[in-house]
Amino acid sequence: MEPKVSSLAERPEMRERVLGMADSWPEFVTHDLMGNAHYGRISGELPEHVLFAEDERGEVVAHAHSVPFALHTEDRGELPARGWDEVLGWAFSDLRRGVRPDTVSAISVVVDPRFQGHGLSARMLSAMRDNARAHGFSEVVAPVRPSAKHLEPHTPIEEYARRVRPDGLPHDPWLRVHVRAGAEVHSVAPASMAVSGSLEQWRRWTGLPFDSRGDVEVPGALVPVRCEPERGYAVYVEPNVWMRHAL
User: Fold this and answer.
1) How many Å is the Cα radius of gyration of the chain?
2) Is residue 204 helix, strand or coil?
3) Helix ranges (DSSP H) in the chain
4) In sequence order, what DSSP letters do the residues of 120-139 get, joined into one string?
5) How far is CA 26 from the centre of its chain?
6) Is residue 229 helix, strand or coil?
7) Distant-in-sequence, close-in-space partners of 12: CB < 8 Å, separation ≥ 6
8) 227-241 pLDDT tens trace
9) Distance (Å, rounded) from C-alpha 31 to C-alpha 236?
10) What is the mean pLDDT of residues 120-142?
11) Are strands 139-144 and 103-111 parallel, antiparallel or unpaired?
């Protein structure tokens, strides 16, 4: 059965169920400061840009968050190197100052782990595109977290983003979904998300010792985490890939 997709603007009573849906994010990713500051605001302040899918029993099986923002301004114009973090900041700065948005950025597409592998991510991406078009936008951009990059943490993101299969589609499965939906690989956001924490926090998030100086490979991380025991902290700077969807 085709899942029913709605927005929180249409059904605000579903907000807690949408936000409470199970996900498969690595624990450390949830401690990005910009994400913690702004992600939860999307459903409250921009509910028309939060979509969710229900199965035949009415269970929430996927959701997609996006934000409108002004890209084509004198002081912006280019998709930012700080990717996900920067676009979240831009979107809520624009909202506060009453700046008219001209572009929509995808922020997340999340599928309940029990329902992964059934095409729901592509369905939600398509719904996000349709939603942006319905609100008068002509472009969706996305700071994409390549789904298989964690298997190659030492491969440069520039090389990984441009790798294609013999059929010309991207090597990475999530990038491939975007291209099939009509997007093109635009550029790399080398510092799209940053997570810093004490060594004790990283031990708690990952179960790893974090007791040696240097790069630490962490399951689910797209690049190694830099550990500085003498300073008592470790830092993860995640690269993403900017995709552009003309509508």
Assistant:
1) 18
2) helix
3) 15-19, 33-45, 83-97, 120-134, 157-162, 173-180, 199-206
4) HHHHHHHHHHHHHHHTT-SE
5) 13
6) helix
7) 47
8) 999 999 999 999 999
9) 11
10) 98
11) parallel
Cα–Cα dist 150/220, whole Å? 5
CA distance 151 to 170: 16
Flag whether pLDDT at 105 surpasses 90. yes
pTM tops 0.90: yes
The pLDDT score that the predictor gives to residue 2 is 84
CA atoms lying within 13 Å on the CB side of residue 93: 9
Record the tokens describing residue 220, joined without a space. 């689910």
d(CA 218, CA 201): 14
What does the alpha-carbon distance between residue 115 and residue 61 come to, in Å, rounded to a whole number? Answer: 7
The pLDDT, as a whole number, for residue 137 is: 98
Residue 1 pLDDT: 66
Q: Which residues of 107-119 are buried (b: 16+ CB within 10 A; e: fewer)?
A: bbbbbbeebeeee
Query: DSSP letter at 156?
Result: -
Place of tokens 């031990």: 203
Q: Quick: pLDDT tens for 20-39.
A: 999 999 999 999 999 999 99
What is the distance between the alpha carbons of residues 106 and 88, in angstroms, rounded to a whole number? 10
Domains annotated on the chain, with CATH: 4-190+241-246 (3.40.630.30)
What amino acid is encoded at 63 in this protein?
Answer: H
